[in-house]
User: What shape does this take?
Amino acid sequence: MASGHFGSPKQTIRAGIAAAVQERRRDVYVATGVSQEAIELVVGVGVYGGYSSDFRVRNRLLYEVAILGLAPQPGLPGAVNVIGLQGGEAGTAMLDGFTVFGCTTPPPRRVQLCYLHTM
Assistant: This one.
């Protein structure tokens, strides 16, 4: 099982965020590639893409990371979701270094890239 550390990365961004919350880590680093999933940002965790596969170099153009959104699902209607985020200081939830593609739903067609709902 992947620990989420540099030598044993998690296989999804969602798993990386969950591990960061559980281990009280501040940052999640994402190596180049394509991830087909919906993620939710949380207070106190920054998610940073654009790393080489060994995580030694960050270049957001050279090591692109794409999030391909899934069809809307309960609790995660967008590819990137911010739901009820409150109580953190400015800048404590961060998403940087990603190209995000929403999922096109069946007719009537609707694309949901990011979903923001505050309490």
